[in-house]
Amino acid sequence: xxxxxxxxxxxxxxxxxYEEWISRIIDSEGFDEGEINYIFCDDEYxxxxxxxxxxxxxxxxxxxxxxxxxxxxxxxxxxxxERVKExxxxxxxxxxxxxxxxxxxxxxxxxxxxxxxxxxxxxMRVKEDEKIQMFHVEQ
Length: 139
Known about the structure:
This protein has five helices and four strands; from the N terminus they run E-H-E-H-E-E-H-H-H. By secondary structure, it is α/β, with parallel strands linked by helices. The protein has one domain: Metalloproteases ("zincins"), catalytic domain (Collagenase (Catalytic Domain), 3-Layer(aba) Sandwich), CATH 3.40.390.30. Helix 3 crosses helix 4.
């Protein structure tokens, strides 16, 4: 079950389409869908989580807490809408594309993809692009 929660004034348009898309991402990677909670927030909210739980005193666009058991993907994915908007401007892409990149990024981490080394980061970008393309395909 995929749920969207809001700690800011932002809301996703067409939640049902996003939910169906995320389910297809999980299926395309050969995993089963468990309980996945997206929490949309602002920089301040996510910064506090970053400091309190990860001991990182930096701003970030996403933090995911992975509770996956075996093949069942589960977790909480916190997304700073402020950071995503800023990144979209920096990367000169539409906000809608950047939010899809971040939403898929969290799921890809649960699937085992990393982004710490240059090689891993490149593979993560390729997988994100692949999953963003899936958003526009009706099933």
